[in-house]
Design brief:
The chain is an alpha+beta fold. The longest helix is centred in the N-terminal third of the chain and has 94 residues. The N terminus is likely disordered. It binds ligand C2E and magnesium ion (MG) (2 copies). One magnesium ion binds next to loops. The site of one magnesium ion (MG) has 4 residues, from strand 24.
Length: about 775
């Protein structure tokens, strides 16, 4: 039965879904762990590399800055050394008498001083009473007494035999220094040779670039800490003096091999490193204040490169992982959509619907389930065409989605069947809603401009008392489907609620399916016989075997209830042969009792005709019971002929060869064709009881005409005719009138137990 299969499949789907979700979860955990590990490794190596590179960079940077500062100092010292060397040269010339004191101020020397860019070169005699200075008359300003104190001090040092450079002083508004060297005569000092230099040459030095092309902002600081000169342009801090003062109170000072001392100070919230190089003997120093922005060490670009490479690598890893994750998620979504979605309409499939139902029922059990099915969807397929029929299903799904509330669900299964879980338990409200829904679906035909009335039927189930939600869902599904089945052969839009009567019917179906084998073994299937009257002689001259299932408790079940079920799964073939056996055994008993027997018809399901050993088994039964085969009439249904006439004829031929008689049952009940009569080698045709049951209705005349014609054709073809459902004298009269051979019906006898039949209708042989 469908619900059982459905439940099995649902479980399987759910299991597969769970396994899939678990696998996906594991994958994500795995990816996350791998990502975390990769990230950790990348971050750790980046930190190590950055720290190592940073330390190296710092070291190399300070060494580099040291080298820059010492280059400026060197240039300063070279400049001073070269100036003093020039003076020493002049002094040597004087000593050797090649240059007189007077010549010093001559144009010749002036030219010389110009070429060394001295402001003035002069000679100050130590022996002159008033420190005579050899100067042109106009240069009285350069007399010793008129010289600034700084210059006089340098000159005095030279008189004392030292080479001296004065402190910076201002002369005529220009910052200047004086060089002084002693001049010797006969082993003793006779005077001092001096040269005055403006500071522009030193300013040029601090404004020039180093050999590596870097130019840094240098402060030239005097003995008292004041700024003598600074590189042009803005420095940070602009006024280095603040910082320099600060540096005096700052902490630890480091010194490099080149004699550069370094101090780190904080100023206005920023950190600065002061590089300080002392120059000459005057307490001067060159200071560079590093703010970390001005210079880049060569290793800096390497750090950038390494950091960049790591960043790119990290980004690549992240991208790969995100890409993989997204792809997996997409795949997962696709798989889930395949597992959970109806691919045609896009709504949920039954498996997903059941999961959702369980969830909703767990929150609130106040739900009902409805199953809607289209009537004759195969016609819709033919009339609309496959594409439009599909479109109709899509539109139906969309309509259902629209009319359902947020806490309600629907799904499609089995082509044209839709399931609805409605948050309703009041029968009247449910009926009203469903009627409207069916009406709206019927109305969809208008979209396709088809003059065809779409009709639907719908089964509804309400389950209020259930042990658990899964049980409730299973029962809702099974019961609504059962209610739906009850409407299958109806007309128009119909709704059926699963009720007590249906419940009993369902119980019965379950019982029929589960206990039939046991019933067969226990002899619960009994042989009933219904008499057939020969209308010409007026005598009972035949009977039909009809099965009755009488259960242990005495309840009788009629074949209409169980034959259709048995026909579906093959059990019917087993039962039919059992009936043949019962018939033959009964006839054997009657023969043994010396009774006169006549042919008995046994209904044969079509399944038997496809069994290879069918004829052999029939023969085996008749032979075992010793019954001549002409006493057995095999009733087959006309539907069988419609399937494969040739094959059927071959079996009929073989059966007749063995002596059995063949009767075509229920002729006229389906889409009968008279060709069957001419095409099949049958002995008898039974006119369906519907013909006679229509007597007294509007169809009477037509049915009569048909019976008359069928009987006539059959007679012409040499086939016996039997009319079923003879209930009245009028029926019999009409049958005689049309010359029908036999009559069978309640008018003569109801089906009765075989023994009772024997007593009533059989006679002793004479
Ligand atoms: P059927 O072969 O056409 O059997 C005739 C049915 O019509 C019987 O119903 C019988 O009780 C009923 N009937 C007889 N006279 C009258 C009458 O005057 N008026 C009305 N209204 N009905 C009448 P039953 O016994 O319920 O059997 C129903 C069907 O079940 C049979 O139709 C037959 O197709 C099937 N059937 C019965 N026994 C067997 C069996 O052993 N094997 C197979 N395969 N099918 C069987
Ligand atoms: Mg029959
Ligand atoms: Mg019949």
């Amino acid at each position: 039965m469908f619900p059982a299969v459905l439940t099995g499949r649902t479980k399987k789907n759910r299991r597969e879904n769970n396994v899939h979700q678990e696998n996906f979860r594991k994958k994500i955990v795995k990816y996350t762990i791998v990502l975390t590990l990769i990230s950790a490794v990348i971050i750790a190596s980046s930190v190590i590399v950055v720290v190592a590179v940073r330390t190296a960079e710092e070291r190399s940077y300070t060494a580099y800055v040291d080298s820059l500062v010492s280059e400026y100092r060197l240039r300063f010292e070279e400049q001073m050394a070269s100036d003093l060397e020039t003076l020493h040269l002049l002094e040597a010339l004087m000593e050797k008498g090649l240059l007189s004191e007077e010549t010093i101020v001559s144009d010749q020397v002036r030219n010389l001083s110009d070429s060394f860019s001295f402001v003035k070169v002069g000679y100050y005699d130590i022996h002159a009473e008033e420190y005579e200075v050899h100067l042109p008359d106009s240069d009285r300003a350069y007399e010793f007494a008129n010289r600034p104190a700084e210059a006089r001090e340098a000159i005095r040092s030279a008189w004392e035999g030292e080479t001296a450079v004065s402190q910076v002083y201002e002369e005529n508004g220009i910052q200047t220094i004086t060089y002084a060297v002693p001049v010797y005569e006969d082993g003793g000092i006779c005077g001092a040779l001096t040269a005055i230099r403006e500071l522009d040459v030193f300013c040029d030095i601090i404004n020039s670039s180093t050999t590596t092309g870097d130019s840094i902002h240098i402060f030239w600081i005097g003995e008292d800490g004041s700024v003598i000169a600074a590189s042009e342009g803005k420095a940070d801090p602009e006024d280095g003096s603040d910082l320099i003062l600060l540096s005096e109170s700052a902490g630890r000072t480091e010194s490099s091999q080149e004699g550069i001392s370094r101090q780190t100070v904080r100023w206005k919230g920023a950190s600065y490193t002061l590089y300080c190089a002392s120059v000459g003997d005057n307490g001067w120093s060159l200071i560079y204040i590093d703010n970390g922005k001005e210079i880049h060490s060569p290793i800096y670009s390497m750090i950038i490169l390494v950091a960049g490479a790591f960043a790119i690598l990290f980004l690549a890893c992240i991208t790969v992982i995100i890409y993989t994750y997204k792809n997996t998620k997409k795949d997962n979504r696709r798989i889930r959509s395949l597992a959970e979605q109806d691919q045609l309409t896009g709504i949920e499939n039954l498996s997903k619907f059941q999961q959702e139902t369980d969830m909703l029922l767990a929150e609130n059990p106040e739900y009902c389930m409805a199953v809607i099915n289209f009537r004759h969807f195969q016609y819709i397929n033919d009339i609309f065409g496959m594409d439009q029929a599909d479109e109709l299903l899509v539109e139906t799904a969309a309509l259902l989605k629209r009319v359902l509330r947020e806490n309600e669900r629907c799904c499609r299964e089995k082509t044209d069947q839709f399931y609805l879980l409605l948050a309703e338990t009041d029968e009247e409200r449910i009926r009203r809603r469903l009627e409207k829904i069916l009406e709206q679906i019927s109305g969809l035909a208008a979209i396709f401009h088809k003059n065809y009335t779409i009709t639907l039927y719908c089964g509804v189930a309400l389950e209020k008392q259930c042990a658990n939600r899964e049980e409730q869902r299973k029962r809702l599904l099974a019961d609504s489907e059962f209610a739906l089945k009850m409407l299958k052969n109806g007309h128009g839009n119909e709704i059926a609620f699963y009720d007590q009567k249906m419940h009993e019917e369902k119980q019965m179906s379950v019982m029929i399916e589960s206990s039939r084998q046991e019933a067969l073994e226990n002899g619960e299937f009994h042989l009933y016989l219904q008499a057939k009257k020969d209308l010409r002689t007026g005598r009972i001259s035949g009977a039909e075997a009809l099965v009755r299932w009488i259960r242990k408790d005495g309840t009788m079940i009629y074949p209409d209830r169980f034959i259709p079920v048995f026909e579906k799964d093959g059990f019917c073939a087993q039962l039919d042969l059992h009936m043949v056996e019962l018939v033959c055994e009964m006839q054997r008993t009657w023969l043994d009792m010396g009774m006169e027997i006549f042919p008995i018809s046994v209904n044969q399901s079509k399944l038997l005709f496809y069994q290879e050993d069918y004829i052999d088994r029939l023969c085996e039964i008749t032979d075992r019971c010793g019954i001549p085969r002409k006493y057995l009439v095999l009733e087959i249904l006309e539907g069988l002929a419609a399937e494969n006439l040739e094959e059927l004829n071959r079996t009929i031929f073989r059966l007749k060869e063995q002596g059995f008689q063949i009767s075509m049952d229920d002729f006229g009940s389906g889409y009968s064709s008279l060709n069957i009569l001419s095409g099949l080698e049958i002995d008898e045709v039974k006119l369906d009881r519907e013909f006679l049951l229509s007597m007294g209705t509007s169809r009477e005349e037509k049915q009569k005409a048909m019976m008359r014609n069928v009987v006539q054709i059959a007679r012409d073809l040499g086939i016996r005719t039997v009319a079923e459902g003879v209930e009245t004298e009028t029926d019999e009269k009409f049958l005689r009138e049309i010359d029908c051979s036999y009559g069978q019906g309640y008018y003569y006898s109801r089906p009765m137990p075989a023994e009772e039949f024997g007593k009533k209708f059989l006679h002793q042989m004479v």
